[in-house]
Amino acid sequence: MKQLLDFLPLIIFFTVYKLVDIYTATGALIAATAVQIAILYFVYKKVEKMHLVTFAMVTVFGTLTLAFHDDAFIKWKVTIIYSLFAIALAVSQIMNKSIIKAMLGKELKADDNIWARVTWYWALFFIGCGVLNVYVAFSLPLETWVNFKVFGLTALTLLNTVISVFYIYKHAQPEQDDTAN
After folding, report:
1. In the chain, at which end, N or C, are there fewer CB atoms within 10 A of the end residue's CB?
2. With contact defined as beta carbons under 8 Å apart, do 88 and 134 qualify?
3. Contact indicator for 101, 119 with CB cutoff of 8 Å
4. Cβ–Cβ < 8 Å for 57, 70
5. What pLDDT does 127 receive?
6. Looking at the predicted structure, is the pLDDT value of residue 1 above 80?
7. In the chain, what are the domain boundaries?
8. What keywords were assigned to this record?
9. Is the pTM value of this prediction over 0.90?
């Protein structure tokens, strides 16, 4: 259910965009993200920082989009969120406190240099996606950007996740058997 909740605002944004327009879709995105946060809080009694940052950015840039009737704001939101993620990953790695290791290190055992590579890889991935978003958002038609945002970036993220998991598994330390004498 949690994975569905992660995609709920995106699905609603896309559907409303296709049925109405970018401005109504932006309002729906703000509302859907607020509902997502509320459900996460009431069901799981916890809301991750990533969701809160995303909600804040959606609210700020969505409101600017609606107030100025200018879709450039909602287009920039994607790049800014990805930039913040890249910065957070880079800073965490520089401080030797990899966010990715903190999230996955209990389930997957790997050397710190593997976690560092994966962390830098994701930081570069987010920078690349942010740059690509700017290109698509401001060089191609709105319809293309919406499709890219919903399907392209989602597919790229899933592909990147698969690549990362395979890389970590390839270099993972074998589980130690606690029952061995």
Report:
1. C
2. no
3. yes
4. no
5. 98
6. no
7. 1-69, 71-173
8. Cell inner membrane, Cell membrane, Membrane, Transmembrane, Transmembrane helix
9. no
- The one-letter code for the residue type at 64 is L
First and final CA of the chain: distance in angstroms? Answer: 41
Amino acid letter, 58 = V
Q: What is the 3-state secondary structure (H, E, C) of 70-118?
A: CCHHHHHHHHHHHHHHHHHHHHHHHCCCCHHHHHHCCCCCCCHHHHHHH
| Rounded Cα distance, 111 and 80, in Å | 31
Alpha helices in the chain (DSSP H): 2-19, 22-44, 49-68, 72-94, 99-104, 112-139, 142-147, 153-171
Cβ atoms 22, 166 nearer than 8 A: no
Q: Does the pLDDT value for residue 161 go beyond 70?
A: yes
Determine contact, residues 33/9, Cβ cutoff 8 Å: yes
Find where tokens 């109504």 sit.
24
Q: How confident is the model at residue 93 (pLDDT cuts 50, 70, 90)?
A: very high
Residue range 1-30: average pLDDT? 94
pLDDT value at residue 38: 95
Query: Which tokens go with 86?
Result: 């890249």
Q: What is the rounded distance in angstroms from the CA atom of residue 129 to the CA atom of residue 131?
A: 5
